[in-house]
Q: What sequence folds into this?
């Protein structure tokens, strides 16, 4: 029996998509069609059999909407799992998510894709089904937002012990240095 039913690369795509928005810094790395193309190229393995035709401003607007849902799921899962489930289910329905069984190089696997031709729908089906599988397998507390005060990036904790609080080691290190300094500073 497999111990996981989610695809780590699709989970990473969800987190990376949410983190193209940096709310604290006010930075957005998904503002142009070129940036969208670069993002999809970087995550092509997880995008599966999604259509790769000419991307338009409409695709960009749709993907930005998908990002809003994916980010809300990552932000709220640990505090309001019921509302998060409704967000995921609504997003999967809108994207016409469809599970498919594939066979390649002697290996069988299932993936969730969309039966539409929209790249945003494929991205929604892939990322939301991956986050749904993390919640179903490991629990909603595994999705979260970095505790770094100047960060607020989202993360999915697929580790064995599930104690992740920071998005990266850099953020964890920065927080421990700040805590050390405040403990040792003269009052
Ligand atoms: Zn962080």
A:
């Amino acid at each position: 029996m497999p111990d996981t039913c989610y695809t780590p690369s699709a989970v990473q795509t969800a987190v990376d998509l949410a983190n193209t928005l940096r709310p604290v810094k006010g930075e957005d790395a998904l503002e142009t069609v070129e940036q969208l193309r670069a993002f999809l190229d970087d995550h092509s393995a997880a995008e599966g059999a999604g259509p790769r035709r000419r991307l338009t401003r409409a695709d960009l607007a749709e993907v930005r909407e998908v990002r809003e849902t994916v980010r809300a799921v990552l932000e709220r899962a640990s505090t309001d799992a019921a509302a998060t489930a409704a967000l995921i289910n609504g997003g999967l329905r809108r994207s016409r998510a469809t599970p498919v069984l594939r066979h390649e190089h002697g290996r069988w696997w299932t993936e969730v894709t969309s039966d539409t031709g929209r790249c945003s729908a494929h991205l929604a089906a892939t990322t939301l089904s991956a986050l749904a599988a993390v919640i179903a397998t490991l629990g909603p507390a595994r999705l979260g937002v970095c505790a770094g005060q100047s960060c607020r990036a989202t993360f999915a904790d697929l580790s064995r012990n599930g104690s992740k609080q920071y998005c990266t080691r850099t953020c964890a290190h920065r927080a421990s240095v700040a805590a050390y300094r405040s403990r040792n500073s003269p009052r």
